[in-house]
């Protein structure tokens, strides 16, 4: 295929000028550096962090201080390549890993590049994100996808990667029993990851019926509505008093974290994925010590994209099951509002920058 395609001088971008306000602007199309590729963005997932920035203007230490473009779960088509890039050609279909790291610090060197202090992560202030028609990305954070994998599914490799990383962090074993607390999109993709890693019993909790039903479709073996049942008592009942081997907290909810800890067997593992609104949460320290509970923090992911694309492409995971809403770029603010106000109807929202 020719390495030349007509690229416009300007493009549409959904710019958050202040919390709660997104406008569509014309901005210049970026030019790829020697080690970058220019990608026409086809599909972008709306993430909980995007919604949080839109609603509150900050997440922990990351504060929106000037207009920003949100969106980081993305996939598209290569339209231009830098002179040093030999891995890609114009027309290649790709998934984009949104965090470009330095490659030189001790964390990058030891393969834990998600801990790189100099990461440039899309849609994390002050870095602009993917609610744009074109985006540049360093070539080593771009991954080819097969023709039969849709751009929407490829974009879902980003939240899916969180689950893959969680499974690797706690060395999830085939045949394990696992409880996953919180069935937002990350939790739902975590169900898929646990299934791919061989967990045979996957118990999930949430308070929205639509999310519990989606969890069943993604591979959950038992679902618990926390509005109707005590999750710890139910998990203990389901496991004949033993508890689960592993519990993942994916809701960012203090009560869910406490429930996760209480549902683990002696010698089991707790994985903290969700970020609660407050920094300090009381936990039962004697229970952690007496039962030798291993605790793992999870921050994004590292070296997960090829495996995620493999799982998604193989048919083991159907990410389409969680996609409920689709919007053009011109209605990005509407997509955000739906994510905030319709959690009982919407799971994953996709924005299409070039429609």
Automatic annotation (TrEMBL):
What highest taxon heads this organism's lineage? Bacteria
Q: Which protein, by its recorded name, is this?
A: NAD(P)-dependent alcohol dehydrogenase
Q: Which family does it belong to?
A: Belongs to the zinc-containing alcohol dehydrogenase family.
- Give yes or no: UniProt keyword Nucleus: no
Q: Name one Pfam family in it.
A: ADH_zinc_N
> Keywords of this protein's UniProt record, alphabetized?
Metal-binding, NAD, Oxidoreductase, Zinc
The answer, when asked if Hydrolase is one of the entry's keywords, is no
- Extract the InterPro entries matched here: ADH-like_C, ADH-like_N, ADH_Zn_CS, ER, GroES-like_sf, NAD(P)-bd_dom_sf, SDH-like
Return one GO MF term. oxidoreductase activity, acting on the CH-OH group of donors, NAD or NADP as acceptor
Cofactors named for this entry: Zn(2+)
Q: Where is the Enoyl reductase (ER) domain?
A: 20-351
Matches recorded under SUPFAM superfamilies: GroES-like, NAD(P)-binding Rossmann-fold domains
